[in-house]
C-alpha cells in the first residue's frame, strides 16, 4: 500500500467558502454571522470535489491512501478571534470527517487546531481529543506561527506548548508542523512562509529539543515540504548543534522528527534520501496543493512525487519504508484504522 502522508482538502465545496465569508462579515456586523454550522453540503457535492481531483490523481499516479486535513492556508489562525478559530476549525474538521467516511478506502483524517495568536494552546486540546476519539483522526497540524508570518509565539520547545504535547502523547498521535497563510506581504505563503516555517521549527528543536524530548519521549513531529531548507543544509544544522555542545542530532532529535517527500524535483528527492536516514522519510505529495503545473523538463506534474521516489536508487525494502511502513511507526492510528477497515491484516 502506498500512503501519502500529506494532503489537504483544497477542492472544498463552495458552500464552505460561503460560510467563511459570513463568519468574517459577522466580525464587523453581528447580524451577518452564520446562524448555523450546518453548511448544507450534500454527500454528492463532496463526492464531486474528491472524485475529480484527489481521488483521480491517486488512481492516475498509483497511490492508495492519503492522510487528509483541511486546507492549510485556509486555517488562517490570525483571522478574527479565538471564537472564530474554534468555530471555523470545527466546521473544517467535520468536513474532513465526512470525506473520510465517504471514501474510507482513500482518506484518513488529520485535524487542524483552533489556534489563535496569543491564546494558550491548551484551548486547542479539546478539539484534538474530539477529532481523534470521535472522528478517528490520526494526527494534527500544529501551526508554530498563528500570527501568519510575524512569529509572535515562543518556540515549539517552550513549556507553553506542553498541554498539546501531553494530549498528543496520551492519544499517541503526531503533529505535522504546518504554518498557514501569510499576512506579511514580505513573505509569500507557500514559497517562503511554508519553507521558513519548516526550517524555523527544526532549528527550534535543535536549540532546545533535548529537554522537550526528555519530557516527552513519545513526541513525534513531521516537518513537511521535505524539511524546508534542512536537508540541503544538513551540515549547517549538525554543525550548529555541535557548536552548541549537543550530542549528534541523529541520536536525540531524529527519533522524534520525520520529513516528507514534498520536494518537487528529482535532484531534491535524491538529496533528501541521501542525507536523511530512510527511517525518517515518509512519502507525500501535498496534492492538490501549492504547485499544480506540469514541469516542462520532465513532462509530469511537479507534485507527482511518487515518480521521484520510484526513481531513487535505493532497495525495495527502503522504498517500502518510505511508501508505507514508516507511516505506521509515526502514525500508529493509521495502522489501527486500516486493520479495522480490513485493509491490513493484524500482525
Ligand atoms: Zn500542507
Note the main attributes of this structure.
TIM Barrel; about 350 residues; binds zinc ion; 6-stranded parallel β-sheet
List strands and helices in order, with pairings.
Elements (H helix, E strand, L loop, with lengths): L2 E7 L4 H15 L14 H9 L2 H8 L3 E6 L1 H4 L6 H21 L4 E3 L1 E2 L12 H11 L4 E3 L19 H10 L3 E3 L11 H27 L5 E3 L10 H10 L5 H4 L4 E4 L5 H10 L5 E2 L22 H6 L5 H15 L1 H9 L7
Parallel strand pairs: 1-2, 2-3, 4-5, 5-6, 6-7, 7-8, 8-9
Bound molecules: zinc ion (ZN).
Strand order of the largest sheet: 4-5-6-7-8-9
Give the cofactors and ligands: zinc ion
Number of strands: 9
Return the CATH topology: TIM Barrel
Give the count of helical stretches.
14
State the helical fraction.
40-55%
The low-confidence parts are none
Distance between the termini: 15 Å
CATH architecture: Alpha-Beta Barrel
* CATH evolutionary superfamily: Metal-dependent hydrolases
> Any idea what the shape is?
globular
Mean pLDDT: 97
Assign the CATH class.
Answer: Alpha Beta
* C-alpha-based Rg, rounded: 19 Å
The ordered string of helix (H) and strand (E) elements is EHHHEHHEEHEHEHEHHEHEHHH
Strand content: 5-15%
Structural class: alpha/beta
Amino acid at each position: 500500500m502506498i500512503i501519502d502522508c500529506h494532503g489537504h482538502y483544497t477542492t472544498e465545496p463552495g458552500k464552505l467558502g460561503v460560510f467563511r465569508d459570513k463568519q468574517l462579515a459577522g466580525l464587523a456586523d453581528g447580524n451577518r454571522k452564520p446562524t448555523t454550522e450546518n453548511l448544507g453540503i450534500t454527500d454528492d457535492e463532496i463526492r464531486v470535489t474528491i472524485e475529480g481531483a484527489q481521488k483521480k490523481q491517486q488512481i492516475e499516479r498509483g497511490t492508495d491512501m492519503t492522510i487528509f486535513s483541511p486546507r492549510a492556508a485556509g486555517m488562517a489562525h490570525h483571522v478574527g478571534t479565538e471564537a472564530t478559530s474554534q468555530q471555523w476549525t470545527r466546521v473544517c474538521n467535520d468536513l474532513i470527517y465526512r470525506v473520510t467516511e465517504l471514501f474510507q478506502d482513500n482518506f484518513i483524517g488529520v485535524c487542524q487546531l483552533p489556534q489563535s495568536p496569543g491564546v494558550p494552546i491548551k484551548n486547542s486540546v479539546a478539539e484534538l481529543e474530539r477529532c481523534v476519539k470521535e472522528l478517528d483522526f490520526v494526527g494534527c497540524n500544529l501551526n508554530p506561527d498563528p500570527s501568519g508570518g510575524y512569529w509572535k509565539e515562543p518556540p515549539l520547545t517552550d513549556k507553553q506548548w506542553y498541554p498539546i504535547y501531553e494530549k498528543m502523547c496520551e492519544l499517541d498521535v503526531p503533529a505535522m508542523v504546518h504554518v498557514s497563510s501569510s499576512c506579511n506581504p514580505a513573505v509569500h505563503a507557500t514559497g517562503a512562509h511554508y519553507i521558513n516555517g519548516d526550517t524555523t521549527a527544526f532549528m527550534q528543536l535543535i536549540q532546545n529539543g533535548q529537554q522537550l524530548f526528555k519530557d516527552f519521549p513519545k513526541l513525534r513531529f513531521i516537518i513537511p515540504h521535505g524539511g524546508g531548507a534542512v536537508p540541503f543544509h544538513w551540515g549547517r544544522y549538525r554543525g550548529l548543534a555541535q557548536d552548541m555542545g549537543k550530542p549528534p542530532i541523529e541520536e536525540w532529535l531524529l527519533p522524534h522528527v520525520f520529513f516528507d517527500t514534498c520536494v518537487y524535483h528529482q535532484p531534491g528527492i535524491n538529496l533528501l534520501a541521501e542525507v536523511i536516514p530512510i527511517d525518517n522519510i515518509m512519502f507525500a505529495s501535498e496534492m492538490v496543493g501549492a504547485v499544480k503545473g506540469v514541469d516542462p523538463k520532465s513532462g509530469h506534474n511537479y507534485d507527482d512525487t511518487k515518480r521521484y521516489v520510484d526513481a531513487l536508487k535505493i532497495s525495495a525494502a527502503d522504498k517500502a519504508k518510505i511508501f508505507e511502513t514508516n507511516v505506521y511507526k509515526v502514525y500508529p492510528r493509521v495502522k489501527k484504522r486500516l486493520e479495522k477497515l480490513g485493509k491490513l491484516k493484524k500482525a
